[in-house]
Amino acid sequence: MPHFWDGLLVTLQVLAIGSVISFVLGLVWALLMRVPSRWVTWPVGTVTEFVRNTPLLVQLFFLFYVMPEWGLTLSALTTGVIGIGLHYSTYTMQVYRAGIEAVPVGQWEAATALNLPMRRTWTAVILPQAVRRVVPALGNYVIAMLKDTPILMAITVLEMLGEAQLFARETFQFTEPLTVIGVAFIVISYLASLALRALERRLVH
């Protein structure tokens, strides 16, 4: 398949940048949900619930086809990366919330006893412990994002499966390209799981 590597590169770009967006934005959502003000928690909760409970495909269509009518036009790849990152940030938010709530109360009390500023409490005490606890769960969403990348074909992004289908239509050969893509997804998933396990071990020690 002449364009397999192009599709692989697109898939890896979507996975890498989408993961960063989902991890960072998910943490932002989680921290905002702890603000003691309904003026903050209510809109954040409403938005994240809406995103989490609507299909990713609908969100991609909205970003790609509707937003240009409001003056915001992005490339298909950019739209796909933002869409998948935003969608999964609402799931990583729940993971972070669970990790933060799992930090023992004594850690909060110790930070208070030491008179640490709130920013220092979060960055030096709470978040390092919370993140260590949630790395495996975050890793599961990385794999889920990888498996959702073919959805981006709906907005004309030619990732691995898109390139395989294009090749199949041109040559009328379906077995070879689809088999190669299936193996590629397995290999990428396996390598990603190994990397996440290594990260987990590093954080634990």
UniProtKB/TrEMBL annotation:
The keyword Cell inner membrane does not apply. It is found in: Cell membrane. The gene is ehuD. It is a multi-pass membrane protein. Keywords: Amino-acid transport, Cell membrane, Membrane, Transmembrane, Transmembrane helix, Transport. Residues 8-196 form the ABC transmembrane type-1 domain. It comes from the Bacteria. Pfam families: BPD_transp_1. This is Ectoine/hydroxyectoine ABC transporter permease subunit EhuD. It comes from Streptomyces erythrogriseus. Belongs to the binding-protein-dependent transport system permease family. CDD domains: TM_PBP2. The chain crosses the membrane at residues 12-32, 70-88, 178-199.
